[in-house]
Amino acid sequence: MMDYLDAILIGIAVFATAATGGIFAPGPWYEQLEKPGWTPPNWAFPVVWTVLYIMIGYAGWLVWRADGAGLAFGFWIAQLVFNGAWSWIMFGLKKIGLALVDAFLMLITILGFMIFAEPISSTAVWLFVPYLVWVCTAIALNFEVLRRNPEAARAG
User: What CA–CA distances, in Å, run from 106 to 36, 79, 81, 83, 85?
Assistant: First the structure.
């Protein structure tokens, strides 16, 4: 019974994080910004994030079930916080530079989770690999949007 309750609570945490992407959607401000040609198409973001959030949730549950509230799970919670904050900072506050800082903090906490989860669950670590790749891509995109739109960065 406790495993189900834990899974539900972890699912709620992941869903709350994912919801920030719907609450703070890109919108017209972001659409008018200059972006690189390699920017993924708009339809790719909800598809990719849905898969990633399922993997993030399962990885967190695996670590929680095996180790409880240890350091690895602490990094898991931290990456969720930075993940949820990014959409608010980028699309809500329109702070491109601050969003880039948040993305780097997300990357650090993802790596921290992977390092500290490795002795606990190699499956959890492998579940985070696509997330790591996607966040690195997002950092590059965030940087390029900042670089190509200095006036929007100053205004935000």
Answer: 22, 5, 8, 6, 10
